[in-house]
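Ticket #4471: structure output looks truncated?

Reporter: J.K.
Steps to reproduce: submitted the chain below (207 residues) through the standard prediction queue, then opened the result file.
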Amino acid sequence: MQYGMAIDLKRCLGCHACATSCRLSNNLPAGNWWNRVMTVGGEAIDTAGGLYPNNLGMQHTPLACQHCENPACTKVCPVEATYKREEDGIVYQDYDKCIGCRMCIAACPYTGVRSFNWEEPTYHLDFAVGDPDALPHQKHTVEKCTMCANLIAKGEMPKCVEACVGRARFFGDLDDPGSEVSQLVARREHKQLLPEMGTGPSVYYLV
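Returned output as attached by the reporter:
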């Protein structure tokens, strides 16, 4: 089994609901983002690139851990704190093992998908939010998208998929040819991020 996602870039509104719902569901520390929506276009967020009036262009591209089939991060972790789960292919982080060396951040070709807690995590609110079984955050540890493994274990969808306003996100088993995500990848033109790096990302962008 290899869990993965297909993201329809024609449907993505750039509303950032995926990013904000991820923050809330996982009670992320202040300043941490596991899921972001990048603007492909102008220099600032939500701005077009090109020349007015005929050559303007803008596209929103959600970015998070790609949960690669051949992850570069797991190869460099000296204590196996970052590892690929055999049962479902999710690239996971064990905070209790993490020694804060940040080798996984250096090895990952997808800039910005991991956060490092330099100090004891602080929060915008003085009480926890989100799912009660979300992992607690720790000082001197690397953290990233878990593909909401805690929700998947309960038969639910990842929070970013559930919250997507434009219904642009699809989740499922890429190894199952009958799954919706596999069928979308099979019949729709798509791209992956940095396929030349050989990591085999499990996130497909439908174009």
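Triage note (M.O.): checked the attachment and the full token line is present. The radius of gyration is 17 Å.
Status: closed, working as intended.
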